[in-house]
Specification:
This protein has 257 residues and is mainly β. Helix content is 2%, strand content 48%. The protein has 1 helix and 15 strands; from the N terminus they run αβββββββββββββββ.
């Protein structure tokens, strides 16, 4: 029975802008600029931001990951102080060979606006319920959201980042998101790894990722997204056996309080 139940993943993330900058802390104000999707390497490709005046935000989703097949879960976010956040989530994968339940977590600082820095420490999993807590599979990412270029119904939002996995190899990367009419988006990214950490296996030198779909960050907004990533030299072997099972398609609803 447990394998047939849908587990809603909860992620607690806390983020708040300075009161002087946002005026009334309890009044929700719709951003004047388009909100750029926060792309991830987890089960959900995009996460809703915690905007000024909000205390919690989250998402519930169903999806399909090639390696794990069906997945159902959720992520929740709460607000302590000055743009900080703590994130918790869970998902059920009843047909996965790696286990039926998994968790994820994250924390850091994030501003939904462009022209701002961000710092994340996260483990997108799988974190197993019977495993002891470890930072071995976590990674820290520091980046900067460059000024967005917007005109008519289009908005181009680039960013650059440096990521240090706690095992594996550090990498530098950049990605750009094209927004169309507030809810449609396409994201492409490229990362370079200079080498592996001592005692770790050598990661691929170049990697590419992309995501696309429809995503509405507003409370009650629906989304349908697809994400994939691969080594750069695997682009020519997209249809071979080794390429199958890496992509994730997800559909769900965002909420906030």
């Amino acid at each position: 029975m447990r394998s047939r139940r849908a587990t809603v993943a909860l992620t607690v993330a806390c983020w708040a802008a300075p009161l002087a900058a946002r005026g009334d802390a309890d009044a929700f104000v719709e951003p004047a600029l388009r909100v750029v999707p926060e792309t991830t390497s987890g089960p959900v490709q995009v996460l809703p931001p915690v905007l000024p005046g909000q205390h919690l935000s989250g998402t519930a989703f169903i999806g399909y990951r090639g390696t794990d097949r069906q997945t159902t879960g959720g992520i929740v976010t709460a607000a302590p102080w000055w743009k900080s956040f703590v994130r918790l989530g869970a998902e059920v994968t009843p047909r996965s060979r790696e286990g039926e339940v998994r968790f994820l977590w994250g924390l850091g600082f994030e501003d939904w606006r462009d022209n701002s820095f961000f710092l994340h420490v996260h483990d997108w999993g799988p974190v197993r319920p019977d495993a002891s807590f470890t930072l071995k599979h976590a990674e820290a990412s520091l980046g900067y959201k460059l000024p967005a270029l917007c005109g008519w119904v289009f908005c181009l939002a680039p960013s650059a980042f440096a990521t240090l996995p706690f095992s594996g190899g550090p990498y530098l990367g950049a990605r750009t998101t094209l927004l169309v009419g507030r809810t449609w988006f396409a994201t492409g990214g490229l990362g370079w790894t200079p080498g592996a950490l001592e005692g770790s296996t050598t990661p691929p030198e170049w990697r590419v990722s992309f995501a696309l779909g429809r995503w509405d960050w507003r409370p009650g907004g629906l989304y349908l997204t697809y994400r994939d990533d691969m080594q750069l030299d695997r682009l020519r072997t997209w249809d071979t056996e080794e390429r199958r099972g890496n992509g994730v398609v997800a559909a769900g609803v965002n909420w906030s309080y």
